[in-house]
Known about the structure:
The complex is a heterodimer of chains A (about 110) and B (about 900).
Chain A: H1 10-22, E1 26-27, H2 28-38, H3 47-59, E2 63-69, E3 75-81, H4 83-108
Chain B: H1 2-41, H2 45-56, H3 59-69, H4 74-91, H5 93-122, E1 133-140, E2 145-148, H6 152-161, E3 166-179, E4 186-193, H7 197-201, E5 207-208, E6 223-226, H8 228-235, E7 245-248, E8 251-258, E9 274-277, H9 282-286, E10 294-299, H10 305-322, H11 324-327, E11 331-336, H12 337-342, H13 346-387, H14 392-428, H15 443-468, H16 473-478, H17 487-524, E12 534-540, H18 548-563, E13 568-574, E14 586-592, E15 605-611, H19 613-619, E16 623-626, E17 640-644, H20 645-651, E18 661-664, E19 676-683, E20 698-702, E21 710-717, H21 721-735, E22 743-746, H22 747-754, H23 756-790, H24 792-800, H25 805-834, H26 850-876, H27 880-885
Parallel strand pairs in B: 4-9, 6-8, 15-20, 17-19
Antiparallel strand pairs in B: 1-2, 1-10, 1-11, 3-4, 3-10, 5-8, 6-9, 7-8, 12-21, 12-22, 13-21, 14-15, 14-18, 16-19, 17-20, 18-19
Helix pairs in contact in B: 1-2, 4-14, 5-13, 5-14, 5-15, 6-10, 13-15, 13-17, 13-23, 14-15, 17-23, 17-25, 17-26, 18-21, 23-26, 25-26
Amino acid sequence: MVKQKPDLPQGTLDMLVLKALSLGAMHGYGVGQRIRQLAEDMLKVEEGTLYPALYRIEQRGWIESEWGTSENNRRARFYKLTRKGRKRLVVEESHWEHLSAAVAKVMQAT
Amino acid sequence: MWLRALMNRVRALWQAEAINHEIDEELQFHIEMCTEENIRRGMTPAEAEQDARRRFGHLTRIKELGYEVRGGGWLESFWQDIRYGVRMLLRKPGFTFVAVLTLALGIGANTAIFSMVNAVLLRPLPFREPERIMTLWENNLKDGIERDDVSPANFLDWRERSSSVFEEMAFANPNSLDYLGGGEPETWQAALVSEGFFRILGASALYGRTFLPEEYHAGRNSVVVLSYGLWQRRFGGDPAIINQKLVLDNQPMTVVGVMPPEFKLNLFEREKVLWAPQVLSEDLRQQRRATYLKVLARLKPAVSPEQARAEMDGIALRLAAEYPQTNAGVGVTTLPLNEQMTGQVRPALLVLLGAVMLVLLIACANVANLLLARGSERERELAVRAALGAARSRLVRQLLTESLLLALLGCASGLLLSAWVSGLVVKLSPDNIPRIEQAGLDQATLIFVSGISFLTALVFGVVPALRFSKPDLNHCLKETGRVDGGGRSRHRLRSTLVVAEIALALVLLIGAGLLLRSFVSLLRVDPGFAADKVVALQVFIWDRYATPEQRAAYAEQALEKLKTVPGVETAGITTALPFLESSADTSVPFTIEGRPAPAAGAEPTVFYSVATADYFAAVGVPLLRGRLFNQHDRMDTPAVVLINETMRRRYWPDEDPTGKKINVRGGQRGQRGPSVFEIVGVVGDVRHQRLDEESRAEFFRPHAQSPNGSIIFAVRTAVDPAALIPTLKARLWEVNRTQPIYAVATGEALISDSLKARRFSLLLLGSFAVLALVLAVIGIYGVMSFATRQRTHEIGIRMALGATPRHVLRLVIGQGMWLALVGIALGLVAAFALTRVMSSLLYGVSATDPLTYASLSLVLGGVALAACYLPARRATRVDPLVALRYE
């Protein structure tokens, strides 16, 4: 069992955030939770890296944000995928598949 | 998406606080959620919160990042850029000074000229819908007359028949009125106008009113309107002048209004200071031959100038058929008022505007070069910043900000400079440029200046900014401290700029040179008379001396008195003095006795004036054949004339005209008397209005046989003419205290005035050319200086390997001169193509005059050589040891 949770490269984190938001608009806290859930706790995104990622992605226009009300009736900033972001997600996904397949091949060599 | 980013930034300008607050709130939410989770896990509230906060790590940094993304912070970084830019500029005061000065000169010159062009050409005339106002002229294209005044009968017919295209037509009849109210008697230029004149212009009085319909009829027309200038000058700007009576031409006239200062029409040679209503008497209505009216008309709505023109052409044709004696060949020239008022000066002004923009280009090229050179020096600094993480866009923004700062400084200094220069230019400008005194800093000029400042910042800032924001980090940081010249491509760019500057400077120099040669040629033209010792005094004596006998008597008395003034050699009378603008300018058709008469209306026309015998001696016109007038030519003896050489050459090329007779019909307006004249002599030619026009055929009648009401005394002096003027005036007033003297001028002043416009253009263009030359020289010097500094290392090696100082000199100068030569070649080609634009301004020299081109190229080459020499000499002083060690 992996005790240490591995560090994510920046590009990969961006992709995960996009994927998380593709399942529905969410506030920052919720994005972190959702990633952890989907990764079945094998992965946890630190707040210190999550928000910079969100802001960076927002600046590039792949997500947009606005104020909304959370499930417990509090004011929170919600993020949502833009059309550009959706396209970007597809691109990132295909890159990732290609990369991981290649890496796997190399590592399988005996 | 970038739109949203832009809007964010704009919003951020005044909502920086709010943005920060929002980020706080967002992160606070997250912290609270974490805290709650922690509490659920069993931590105490205090521990929970602490843990939550800790998870964020560097909270403030995250907040900053968010702030920047959401639009805030750009203003601060812009301000940072500015402060940094200012520091950079202050650190190199020499560079800053040269750059700002260069820009100030370029922008300043442009502003001054543009404000002039704006005031004179671009700003709409101060009348109601000025583009709908047309001026109408008689023309006679067969005789080469394009714009002649209109006769009253023609005017009336035009007005009556053109109601389909013009809603109103009116005229202004130039006249003069004598005012004796105190001090010296004065003659004031007036215009008698017909009904509708003010209405066409949409002009109303500043105080009082213009004329009522009934005042255009006899008995009610003793009213006048004053011009603003006259009102200020003579009546102290006192509004109480309204309804007061002035005695003008011995008639009491009531002042009913004063016009505003903008009310100035450039229709007349002399500016009008009085307006009065013209009564259309029966006599006047019949005059179809005498042309002296200026006609204005307003187009009907939805009628175009072309339609009006076509209509008037048709009307003219019908009139020519109805009145073949007077109107054969007479057509109508229809011009928009704007064209009439500014058409003459437009080409010159536009040439000037083009020239001054070239100067600005040169200035930009210079500053770009300076920036490129300095950029090379800053390359290391920029490389370090890039290595530390600065984005390229940020570096570009930084460099552009510096350029903008320079442009702003240049703009501010340029504005100051132009304000000072404008004043000077307006003072030196010739009189016929309308509205030039209104040139100044108005809205349009300010917009123009801001525009070009911004553009110049872009032009000279963009290239260096782009080049240097992508520094090759390896290259820069590897070199052990040596500042590199930036490689060959950068040098090529700088060289290109210098070559362009030299070419542009040569174009301007050639333009100015051609104008200078034209001017000099004009000065050398023999006007045909000895202008240096002549004084002219003009009087209009119709009113006081109604009969020919009275006029002859006055003339004789006056001449006697004038001749008694010590210092006067001789004096004569004429009706048309060369270069005196207010001279009579009459032309008449004539036939030669004994030759087959041409068809009616197809007779040749010549100019005609009246003179006394001594006139020719007074102005120094030689007698070429026959005799001058003498005391035997009187009213009761046969009518004689003198003709000038041009007339003789044209009509009697192979024979002696003396003894021949000519037949002149009608002649002057309302003139009775003989119409057959015998030629008794031929006199030399004079130029009458401009040095650059051909002399015209004219003949002279003796004053004794046709005493005229509009006479000019031409006085030849042995001493300085100007000094005698007061005495001469006093003598004339001894003859008649109440006779105003209309104009007094020395011959020299008259000729000089006629050249005023040319002198002005020459001065301006010459200044630009010199400016361009100076800038180009600075450019060459700068580039060569920098280049040699970069190559110190290489030069040191060469010298160590045996190159003598002379070799080095030749190397450096050779490179510089190569640039100069290319620039000169390009400049010659450009000048060849461009100077034909100004060919209408040239005299006596063609637009492609080889001498001018060659000599100016040599001058420029020589100056370039001098500019290269200094850096070259500095290069030879390089100590090889030092250079080799210098890294």
